[in-house]
Specification:
- It is a single chain.
- This protein is an all-alpha fold and 362 residues long.
- Helices cover 76% and strands 0% of the residues.
- The chain has 14 helices and no strands.
- It is globular.
- The relative contact order is 0.12.
Amino acid sequence: MKQLFLGGISLCVHLYFFLAFGSLFRKILGRKKGCSWYSPLFTPVLGLFLYYGFFEILALPMTLLLVPLHVLTVVWGAALAAVGLAAVFLCGRDWVKSARNLLEVFRCQKIICILAGLLTLGQMIYVAAYDLNAADAAFYVANISTSLYTDTLGRYNPYTGLLSSVFYVRYVTAAWYLDTAAFAKVFQVHPMVLAKTINPVMWTFLADLVYYQLGYELFRGKDLLAVRKKAVAFLAAAVFFFFLAGNQEFSGFLFYRAYEGKAMLEGLVIPFLFLLFVRIYREPEDHLAWWTLFFVSLGAVCLSTSSMTVVPAAVFAGILPTALKKKKIRPLIRAFLAILPDVAVLMLYLAVKLRIVTLVAK
């Protein structure tokens, strides 16, 4: 019970920093056209990608330089403290205003809010209780454990426990597990509790925020009550789809293998990209959406190496309708700039596979 309590604190801390990162970024771009609006549902998801994007910038060089985990923990902790304090002073009023607006929406539409809340709560309980014992599960838990208990950054083979001679390029850029190891170190929580209980709950909650917003955007209209009803219905449809498709034969990850980076890529990154594509198609000069597209690309690198091919393909497919609508190549140029982090990872991957570069681990 103590482990779950400490894990719950870790979950709340993560969600706070997601909100802080997203709020500060919105504040920085607030004076630009199309960036002044604030959404209590959109901001935490944006913050997630900013959080893991900046963590990738910090963790990857430290990993390749063979820096100990405790050093990364201290440096990242100092950065988070700075962001957290800055967000309180600069964004506190926005949070209070958003909380009042959400409370007003709840008072006016209690049934819709309760249904959405129960649906999300049910999923969170399910993913927390579901247990899949497989080779991939052992790999992710062991990867966090070996980093934690050896005070290193992904240098040990998770299956054998032996020190690796080189880093596996397939996993070295997906550094989110090092953030989990750092939180396990600080909060004294067992890696399995964080990896297979707390993290899946967090991913599920944020994914549901995306599904609701996607439904809201697709059915946007003047009647807000009707729009919110349709958005909840879309959320329910998305959830049931993942439950029905979520088996190992069909490779549904979100509710069955939520401890994997591919689960975040499939259940969170791609739907959020689609939300951005819809907004950009309706408003091609939405600066916040374009900047968010870049940080989704950067944050996705930290979550799954597969993003190096999936995200670029999705971005060009999603932005092409906007380019055709405007009959200009500018949206495609912006799309290419947005996926530069994934292109960089792809180039590193190819360089290692072609033996041009060797990532030495000892």
